[in-house]
Amino acid sequence: MKAGLHFVDGGTACAEGAIFAGCQFFAGYPITPATSIVEWMAERLPQVKGYYLQLEDEIASMAAIIGASWAGGKAMTATSGPGFSLMQENLGYAYLTETPVVLVDAQRSGPSTGQATMPGQQDIMQARFGTHGDITPIAFSPWSVQEMFDFTIQAFNYAERFRTPTLVMTDGEVSYMREPLTIPKRSEVSIINRERLTKKHSNPEEIFLRYEMPKFGDGHKLLVTGSAHRPTGVRDYTPRFHRATIEWLFEKNRQAGLALREEGLDLETAHLESAKTVVLSFGASARPAYQAVQTAQKQGHDVGFIRLKTLWPLPESHLLELTKSVQRIFVVEMNMGMMVNEIARVACHAEVHCVPKVAGEVHHSNEILDQIMESGAA
Amino acid sequence: MKEPEPRLGKTQQYYRENYLRNLPNAFCAGCGNGIILNGFVRAVDELISAKEIQHQDILGVSGIGCSAWIPSPHFQGDTLHTTHGRAIAFATGAKVMNPKLRVVVFTGDGDGAAIGGNHLIHAARRNIPMTVILVNNLNYGMTGGQSAPTTPLHVQTSTYPQHPEAPFDLTELVSGAGASYVARWTTFYVKKIIATIKEALLHPGFAFIEIISQCPTYAARFLTEFQSTLSSDEREQFKRHPGAWMLKALKGKKTGEGLGQPRYEIALKDKMIELGVFKRERRPTLIEHLQALWG
Ligand SMILES: Cc1ncc(C[n+]2csc(CCOP(=O)(O)OP(=O)(O)O)c2C)c(N)n1
Ligand code: SF4
Ligand SMILES: [Mg+2]
């Protein structure tokens, strides 16, 4: 799509963002509500001499994008809850092998097949802890069609910059709704591309301790393995090697957290100056949450608003700074209460309430407002 | 105590310098995996020396299992050691993204035919250009001799006193799924393995090579028919060097010819298994179909 104003659904915006970021490879398996992402990738990738593959399942899709990434391409998949579950083992492989790939989860209402076509935010803990072993993800949470485009680009940038898989944890609501989308000019957005490692980098001791991604076919004789390994890639289960690897993954994630904050990608706020009561939300549920805050403000109540743009790493110190003098936090989310526990852990000085909603519906702003008023908070 | 450095002949030195690394390997004494690694590096050396392929284009992909350790960490070249059963799916991504790569998947009978069976048949159907070497040692070696989808009916495994299922004929399965090159050998036929891997690496399409191999540690007892023909002296030797004796059982009888190669057959339990090259055809590959979409 050309630079300028368009009117599209979130899935299409996500796919356009991927193409804008230089995605050359997509593998997936059909599932609602990720379908519009998948279909638009199928249309667009051949136009840019890229490859779209519909594979036999989501396990293969996740595997294939990792293989494609090591072969030198920016690669992505998109799915929803059931597929996200199937991808977990290979997602863990991508974390351990430090493979840049992007995974979009258009969350639907589960568990199991649940309400297949209806939105939810019930996979956010699966994003955090879904694969076995110790991992630390980077997960974006877009709330608009524009952010589906913008955050998909950022997901690619962060994947490349920190040599890690990144997640776009959207939901059926944001990926299906239609809104204006402004596609920027090429020069307006910085895209992080892979630097081709030359022979001087081919000391594997170095390759595995750098951010830059080597690729197959360049004569590096790469040993890529999901087993514990030495910096050279040779399997080795000695505690000191594996400890070094895991600590390195955590350190990269910490650095990513700092970068997200610096770039204003961790969270945004409104009316926070003197508010003692704050509504916190993310993704689709942040829309009615924000509306509720605006209504409260109009009615003369000092209610503030925090929206998480990234769920993981949770911007803990930023949240703590912002909520130091806040007394009550209402966490609005489309599940029975997941993020609320994280917020209660971070803002342990405040009363933290959950405003849950399940069964495939987005909150109505009145419900949120009512709960705040009933608690006597405003 | 440090093991003494082995004295190497010229040939061994040549392969170690150019194609192998991280030796010695971790395979049990007498295991068939070493024979297959040997056959593989000889095949690629012949192709590279003849300038038919380039060393840096070769990518060895494997899943989880003893057979997965053939390329990783022993092949000097790019390797991708993946999750259990998924090697072909990882390889699919790498091959499509960079069609120049010569992708060789090493997989086991559990890895490739049980947990990864779905990827195997779909890759054959798509005719994606890659070579899959499936090491059929008739059981799960790495986890300790459990039943596999290739385990002969009624043998004793560590998970069944009498394995209650009939085995797959993998060559037939993959051929039926659409592979365009299909061959089966046993580890006895090293020269055939080399020739077949060479052909497979140059084949423009999905090439499947099943290699029936010996796992002396866990599957020696499967070859009971064979054992019953031995004298008590021989049986003692068999117990001491099961790998070498299993190799004898993997030598077949010549039955004729097919596709320019001799055919043999071996008896596995009460089933006769045919060896040889069974299919060599040219049909459009997945990469060709995908690139046609570029218009
Ligand atoms: C998802 C998963 N399930 C189970 C295992 C355990 N496991 C490791 S190797 C293996 C079987 C390997 O058998 P095969 O593929 O025949 O290889 P072999 O060791 O016989 O060469 C199993 C079940 C695993 N690593 N991952
Ligand atoms: S367990 Fe069997 S397959 Fe594995 S290395 Fe030992 S002999 Fe070989
Ligand atoms: Mg096996």
Question: What average pLDDT do the residues of chain B reach?
Answer: 94
Largest β-sheet summary of chain A: 8 strands, mixed
What is the fold named in CATH at topology level of the largest domain in chain A?
A: Rossmann fold
The proportion of residues in beta strands of chain A is 15-25%
Descriptive labels:
heterodimer; A: 378 residues; alpha/beta; Rossmann fold; 8-stranded mixed sheet; globular; B: 295 residues; 9-stranded mixed sheet; 11 helices; binds thiamine diphosphate; binds iron/sulfur cluster; binds magnesium ion
Overview of this protein structure:
The complex is a heterodimer of chains A (378) and B (295). Chain A is α/β, with parallel strands linked by helices and 378 residues long. Chain A has 2 domains: 1-265, Thiamin diphosphate (ThDP)-binding fold, Pyr/PP domains (Rossmann fold, 3-Layer(aba) Sandwich), CATH 3.40.50.970; 267-374, Rossmann fold (3-Layer(aba) Sandwich), CATH 3.40.50. Chain A has 13 helices and 16 strands. In chain A, the strands form 3 sheets. In chain A, strands 2, 3, 4, 5, 6, 7, 8 and 14 form an 8-stranded mixed β-sheet that branches. In chain A, strands 11-13-12-15-16 form a 5-stranded mixed β-sheet, sandwiched between helices. A two-stranded antiparallel ribbon of chain A has the order 1-9. In chain A, helix 1 runs parallel beside helix 6 (145-162), helix 3 packs parallel to helix 4 and helix 10 (286-298) crosses helix 13. Chain A is globular, with a radius of gyration of 21 Å. In chain B, strands 2-1-3-4-6-5-9-8-7 form a 9-stranded mixed β-sheet, with helices on both faces. The model of chain B has no long low-confidence stretch (mean pLDDT 94). Chain B contains 11 helices and 9 strands. Chain B has a single domain (26-292), classed as Rossmann fold (3-Layer(aba) Sandwich). In chain B, strand 5, helix 7 and strand 6 form a beta-alpha-beta unit. Chain B has 295 residues and is of the alpha/beta class. Chain B has helices at residues 10-18, 33-49, 87-97, 109-115, 117-126, 170-177, 190-202, 224-228, 232-240, 242-249, 286-292; strands spanning 58-62, 78-81, 102-108, 130-136, 181-186, 206-212, 253-258, 261-268, 271-280. The longest helix of chain B is centred in the first third of the chain and has 17 residues, at 33-49. Chains A and B meet through helix 3, helix 4 and strand 10 of A and strand 2, helix 3 and helix 5 of B. The site of iron/sulfur cluster has 12 residues of chain B, from loops. Magnesium ion binds at residues 65, 108-110, 137, 139-141, 148 of chain B.
